[in-house]
Design brief:
By secondary structure, the chain is mainly α. The chain has one domain (3-205): CDP-alcohol phosphotransferase transmembrane (TM) domain (Four Helix Bundle (Hemerythrin (Met), subunit A), Up-down Bundle), CATH 1.20.120.1760. The chain has helices at residues 3-21, 27-39, 41-46, 50-73, 79-103, 105-136, 157-169, 174-205. Helix 2 runs antiparallel to helix 4. The two termini are 32 Å apart.
């Protein structure tokens, strides 16, 4: 929901950094580096080092935006890079939730399981629509810099990062916070399935 406003704000700073990294590292190296930093949040959360985990999460998100900016300024954009980026993103998100479950299984496991269930809904509805939209030639005017067609929803990248930050700042309240966010993700899944279906139907019916 917030990505349409936050993404334009981050575009110029990320491009500024990308120009200074151009020729020094490749977009793929940034993608893998950001993922390795992000996945370190899993053990850090399990060991309840929430401050360090938060730093790893934020650095991962910085790298997630930076790899695309670097690909654009160095003219190395590719479908393969976009696929790797989104695939590792979903692994990272799931790992962060698992970390909270491992930190306090008795209190957090049920809410973490619910949130992972909701993540499957948002992720599959996003990717399934992207595949169909690509095949049908449906354009993405709102997010032209994305490698995949970006189907909007109540919970997008910005909201997910905000949720992870809040989880780290208030870990004792993870069960209720994760449950609320899971409910928002399930709403996103429902609206994406409905909106995606009718978008494709209308496109198929066009002469």
């Amino acid at each position: 929901m917030l990505d349409r406003w936050t993404m334009p704000l981050t575009h110029r700073p990320l491009e500024w950094i990308a120009y200074r990294l151009k020729g020094r590292v490749t977009p793929g190296q940034v993608t893998f580096g950001a993922f390795l930093i992000g996945i370190s949040a899993l053990p850090l959360l399990a060991w309840e080092y929430y401050g360090l985990a938060l730093a790893a999460i934020l650095l991962n998100r910085l790298g997630d935006g930076l790899d695309g900016a670097l690909a654009r300024v160095s003219h190395q954009t590719s479908e393969a890079g976009g696929f790797l980026d989104i695939g590792l993103d979903f692994v990272f998100y799931a790992a962060a939730v698992l970390g909270f479950a491992l930190a306090n299984p008795a209190d957090n496991a049920q809410a973490a399981a619910l949130l992972l269930f909701a993540f499957i809904g948002t992720g599959t509805s996003f990717l399934a629509f992207a595949i169909a939209a690509k095949q049908q030639g449906v354009e993405r005017p709102d997010f032209p810099q994305k490698a995949f067609y970006y189907l909007e929803g109540l919970t997008e990248g910005t909201e997910t990062v905000m949720a992870l930050v809040i989880f780290c700042l208030f870990p004792a309240h993870f069960p209720i916070l994760a449950t609320v966010f899971a409910a928002a993700c399930l709403i996103t899944t429902a609206t994406r399935l409905w909106g995606g279906y009718w978008t494709l139907r209308r496109h198929e019916e066009q002469p």
